[in-house]
Specification:
By secondary structure, this protein is α+β, with helices and mostly antiparallel strands. The protein has six helices and ten strands. It has two domains: about 140 residues, GTP cyclohydrolase I, C-terminal domain/NADPH-dependent 7-cyano-7-deazaguanine reductase, N-terminal domain (GTP Cyclohydrolase I, domain 2), CATH 3.30.1130.10; about 120 residues, 2-Layer Sandwich (GTP Cyclohydrolase I, domain 2), CATH 3.30.1130.10. The strands form two sheets. An eight-stranded mixed sheet has the order 5-3-2-10-9-8-7-6. Strands 1-4 form a two-stranded antiparallel sheet. The two termini are about 35 Å apart. The model has no long low-confidence stretch (mean pLDDT about 95).
Length: about 280
């Protein structure tokens, strides 16, 4: 896809445009963005060295029961990494709000409609779960695994994406390790609106030891970078895989919510791995 076609596709999205919220159920509000837009640049448009999923949590889900009484709930949506497209976030927000004045017989009916419409958009099976507003067990804040990178007293000068900052652990480039690291300092900007996107990132790997100061500087260099959530995670994954000899790698980002949605992309070298259901207090 050339730059002109890419620009036209992005310009056609509702993201960044003033939009009226309708009161009628409308699956046509959903919009898809081809994953290939970013994967061409990463050199993985045909074959990806990762597996995983994009886990969405929706906090503003409501409909009417058969007597016209409002029901509120939460939803979790898992979209496979190998779907041809990702869902554009504002379109999902508009779509979910189109259910507000629609009558459904049960929560199961809502789940079935969400699943049907998303699968029709993406042409791939998706997993949808709907939870009661009183179901606290699914949305508890959890401790982040591994060690936090953020207490390092480092000098930072790069705020534009700089993969060359990554390097092996100083003093012994042949040292191998297995560890989990996380940072709360990941910030990027929306590709279209330039609004800030905030996230905690978790990196779980085995192989050539990654220099922690270098890794933190690299993550901070996303600070003025414009890209969708899913694309940022795939970029981090590919940059780490290309700069270090790793036998195993998983990258997950827990983005803070916007418009009643948070997105949690997960990519891993392990085909059987599923995204850990982690939750930060900023979500």
């Amino acid at each position: 896809m050339n730059n002109s076609s890419k620009s036209e596709l992005l310009d056609s999205l509702s993201l960044g445009k003033a939009t009226e919220y309708g009161g009628d159920y409308d699956p046509g509000l959903l919009q898809a963005v081809p994953r290939v837009l970013n994967r061409i640049e990463l050199g993985v448009e045909h074959t990806q060295p990762f597996f995983g999923e994009d886990v969405w949590n929706a906090y503003e889900l409501s409909w009417l029961n058969e007597k016209g009484k409002p029901v509120v709930a939460l939803a979790r949506i898992s979209i496979p990494f190998n779907s041809e497209c990702l869902v554009e976030s504002k379109s999902l927000k508009l779509y979910l709000n189109s259910l507000n004045q629609t009558r459904f017989a049960s929560m199961r009916s809502v789940l079935n409609v969400l699943t049907r419409d998303l699968e029709a958009l993406l042409d791939i099976p998706v997993t949808v779960n709907v939870f009661s507003a009183n179901d606290l067990s699914e949305f508890r804040v959890t401790n982040m695994p591994g060690e936090c990178l953020d207490d390092q007293d480092i000098i930072v000068n790069e705020y534009q994406l700089t993969p060359s900052l990554l390097q092996c652990a100083e003093g012994d480039k042949h040292r191998t390790t297995s560890e989990i690291l996380h940072s709360h300092l990941l910030k990027s900007n929306c590709l279209i609106t330039n609004q800030p996107d905030w996230a905690t990132v978790i990196i779980d790997y085995s192989g050539q030891a990654i220099d922690r100061e270098a890794l933190l500087r690299y993550l901070i260099s996303f600070r003025q970078h414009n890209e969708f959530h899913e694309q940022c995670v795939e970029r981090i994954f590919m940059d780490l895989l290309r700069t270090h000899k790793l036998s195993r790698l998983s990258v997950q980002a827990l983005y803070t919510r916007r418009g009643g949605l948070d997105i949690n992309p997960f990519r891993s070298t392990d085909e059987s791995a599923q995204a850990p259901l982690l939750r930060i207090n900023r979500q």
